[in-house]
């Protein structure tokens, strides 16, 4: 696998090696020791799967204090995936990284604990799968406004389909209980 660092500490883009032949392809999408040595320090404890239609934007989400690291990918379709560093004290606080995840490119995106996460569906539908290194904890959930001008994210669409929680999410500057950066 190939691992690429981004400008946000701990955020990684992973390209699993694919073996391709006339039947299709094979890729190892997770192997605990190799992924831990690449910078994913905690064991994954929960897998999630969502299916969404074109224009659906989910995010920006995180948990605190029970923060989650996430390893995300797309098994069908195409999404623009976004990580925002919201860790107080981080040298990249408030900055974001985007990556297009598709069934064809097979990329994976790792977001360390303390980063907000969101994605928008660019294809007719998309199946989005991800591993979490902490259990879902509704009482620790935080949503950040998807179109916060201070973040400057180009979602490639001006009028996304949002859930009620995302439509009502506060600006990053209005959230007082953000995670702390741990170098």
By DSSP, the count of extended strands is: 13
Q: Please identify the top-level CATH class.
A: Mainly Beta
Stretches where pLDDT is under 50 for at least 5 consecutive residues are none
CATH topology: Jelly Rolls
CATH superfamily: Jelly Rolls
* Series of secondary-structure elements, N-terminal to C-terminal: EEEEHEEEEEEEEEH
Question: How far is it from the N-terminal to the C-terminal residue, by CA?
Answer: 25 Å
Q: Give the domain tally.
A: 1
What spatial form do the alpha-carbon principal axes imply? globular
**Count of helical stretches:** 2
Protein described:
The protein is mainly beta and 183 residues long. It has one domain: Jelly Rolls. The chain contains 2 helices and 13 strands. Strands 1-2-10-7-12-5 form a 6-stranded antiparallel sheet, with no helix packed on it. It has a 5-stranded antiparallel sheet with strand order 9-8-11-6-13, with no helix packed on it. A two-stranded antiparallel ribbon has the order 3-4. The chain is globular, with a radius of gyration of 16 Å. The mean pLDDT is 97.
Summarize this structure briefly.
Helices cover 5% and strands 41% of the residues. The protein has 183 residues and is mainly β. The two termini are 25 Å apart.
Fold topology:
Elements (H helix, E strand, L loop, with lengths): L1 E4 L6 E4 L2 E4 L2 E4 L4 H6 L8 E8 L3 E7 L6 E7 L1 E8 L10 E7 L5 E4 L3 E7 L3 E8 L8 E3 L20 H4 L16
Antiparallel strand pairs: 1-2, 2-10, 3-4, 5-12, 6-11, 6-13, 7-10, 7-12, 8-9, 8-11
């Amino acid at each position: 696998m190939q691992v690429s660092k981004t400008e946000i500490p701990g955020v990684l883009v992973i390209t699993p090696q694919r073996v391709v032949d006339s039947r299709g392809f094979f890729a190892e999408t997770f192997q605990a020791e190799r992924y831990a040595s690449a910078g994913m320090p905690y064991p994954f404890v929960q897998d999630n799967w969502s299916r969404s239609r074109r224009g659906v934007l989910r995010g920006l989400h995180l948990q605190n204090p029970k923060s989650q690291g996430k390893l995300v990918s797309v098994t069908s379709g195409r999404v623009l995936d976004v990580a925002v560093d919201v860790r107080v004290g981080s040298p990249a606080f408030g900055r974001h990284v985007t990556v297009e995840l598709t069934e064809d490119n097979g990329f994976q995106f790792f977001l360390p604990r303390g980063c907000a996460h969101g994605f928008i569906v660019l294809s007719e539908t998309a199946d989005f799968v991800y591993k979490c290194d902490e259990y879902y904890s509704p009482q620790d959930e935080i949503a950040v406004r998807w179109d916060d001008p201070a973040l400057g994210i180009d979602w490639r669409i001006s009028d996304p389909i949002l859930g009620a929680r995302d439509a009502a999410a506060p600006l990053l500057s209005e959230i007082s209980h953000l995670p702390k950066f741990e170098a």
